[in-house]
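Q: Hi! New to this. If I give you a protein sequence and the SMILES for 2-acetamido-2-deoxy-beta-D-glucopyranose, can you show me the bound structure?
A: Yes, paste them in.
Q: Okay, here:
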Amino acid sequence: MFASSFLSLVAVYVVATLAAPTPSAASPTVQLDNATFVGTSDGTADSFLGIKFADAPRFNLPVPVGPYTGMQTVDAFGPACPQQGSNAVTTLADQLAGNPVASKLQARADVPPSEDCLNLNVYVPAGTNSTARLPVAVWIFGGGFETGSADTVDGGVIVKRSVELGEPVVYVGMNYRVSAFGFIAGQEVKAAGVGNIGLEDQRVALQWIQNWGESAGAISVALQMLTNGGDAGGLFHGAFMQSGAPIPVGDISRGQAEYDQLVQDTSCGNATDTLQCLRALPYDTLKLAVDQSPGIISEQSLRLAWLPRVDGRFLTDTPQNLVLQGSIAPIPHVSGNVNDEGTVFSLVNSMTVLDDTAFRAYMLSNYIDGATESDVGDLFDTDYPDDPTQGSPFGTGTNFSILPQYKRLAAIQGDLVFQAPRRFFVEHTYNRQPTWSFLSKRKPQSTFLAFIGAFHASDVAYNVFAPGDMTDYLVHFVNHGDPNGAGDGLIDWPQYDNNTRQQMTFVDDDDAPLVITNDTYRVDGFNKLTELSLQFPL
Ligand SMILES: *[C@@H]1O[C@H](CO)[C@@H](O)[C@H](O)[C@H]1NC(C)=O
Ligand SMILES: *[C@@H]1O[C@H](CO)[C@@H](O)[C@H](O)[C@H]1NC(C)=O
Ligand SMILES: *[C@@H]1O[C@H](CO)[C@@H](O)[C@H](O)[C@H]1NC(C)=O
Ligand SMILES: *[C@@H]1O[C@H](CO)[C@@H](O)[C@H](O)[C@H]1NC(C)=O
Ligand SMILES: *[C@@H]1O[C@H](CO)[C@@H](O)[C@H](O)[C@H]1NC(C)=O
Ligand SMILES: *[C@@H]1O[C@H](CO)[C@@H](O)[C@H](O)[C@H]1NC(C)=O
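A: Thanks. Here is the predicted structure of the protein with 2-acetamido-2-deoxy-beta-D-glucopyranose bound:
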């Protein structure tokens, strides 16, 4: 399905340490508490799949499981969390789904999703002995906080490459709740202290990894870096973020309309405690109502119905204010973007936003709600003009103007939600902690897909899990807290700072050498977007 293929809104590796299992050719085993877990091996990586790490009571925080006892066979993926149904135009989606790279990122259909979905998958280099202390790369999947699961990518790819590089790592991918199940919002939710449930699921998985092994931990998304006053609590020591930085989200009350709609769409409208009523609904009833909420492939696009918001507990302020306050885990991080972050999110809204007037009205109502034309100034005229040669896919002249405002929407949406927040993040962290930045221009080779350029998640599809040169930088980073290392023949990746603003550029042609470019494009537009989003968060 389209929505679960490409839309990794937040793709992050976190780094931890973990004790290795006992190797065995046929069926590797690992001891957890008093239990023996039996996995499988393909000769390169031993895998332990679908290990449950927490219970997921509906609209409540996760509850860690354990201690484990007995013998458990963990040779198959566990269920994904409930996926938000798409109300999208599906023709294009189906075509993209037929693309071999896209299908690689698709959710599996053989195990139905379940609310009891908090499981994770562990891949270890085959033959690692039980005294090894290997660093761990923890993958947090994307999917616009609406869809996705840990089983859509093959962690064995990373483990195999790490062994070839002589820098072995363990790989863990965890599930977390998405859509309303993970990110229900509203005053009722805030009062009950159950905002940002999906982020709490990730945190519990990180604690599990910590407990299972020992020693230093890992990091999750940028928001995991900002919570808890920037205290990582020993859970992580590095973060590798692909297309996801502290996003400009506001108070959880901004999700009230979605909450009220959900209540109205179920039989909970007359309940005295609506949250309790939602908790008690039959799953199918609730799921049907959740699927009515606007998805990422809808006209409202990146103004997501369900996403992390300021709940006063996990997030005590807007992510960007937390950055300004220095509430940031002081760990090395890599933060990057693809060139054309906004293209896939502009296919549906550009069907109805057809001219300059509609564009202005749409931007003001959908993304900078509360702002006036005067707050916006000359942003739409000067920085994101009605001129396809300035739009995204960038640098393609008048090509790919499939609809009049498509390239313009693609440019501004990609910058507002992904590019400007990334630059803001690295500009405010490089002086506190080792910081690297990248731009990926890897594109689909097929002419059919050329109109989406170096689209959102193309780096995941064409590089990291391919594997490619970014895999090698990742493996070094997991081992050393620095993407540079030996044995790969790659160029040096300099740290980011405000004076040089150097960033690694994964060029279009993957046979061409990498280059270092300056992160100085669209400065004026980014600054204005950042100012607006500080004032008028999503
Ligand atoms: C493991 O088993 C031992 C012996 O039966 C018992 O004393 C201990 O409490 C168990 N530990 C856990 C974590 O279940
Ligand atoms: C595990 O590996 C270490 C380091 O290579 C080695 O010293 C040790 O003997 C090994 N232990 C076992 C049980 O194989
Ligand atoms: C609430 O109660 C009224 C009156 O009994 C009924 O007409 C209405 O359908 C109920 N609404 C919901 C959402 O259950
Ligand atoms: C536009 O497309 C044509 C035909 O594929 C190509 O020759 C030309 O180089 C493209 N222009 C730009 C600016 O990319
Ligand atoms: C880096 O530059 C940006 C933009 O000018 C500025 O907002 C930020 O404060 C600078 N960072 C530091 C650490 O001076
Ligand atoms: C990048 O900036 C440096 C100065 O920091 C400058 O010497 C170099 O020419 C710039 N590179 C490009 C491609 O503009």
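A: Residues 5 and 105 are 5 Å apart (CA to CA). Let me know if you'd like me to explain how to read the tokens.
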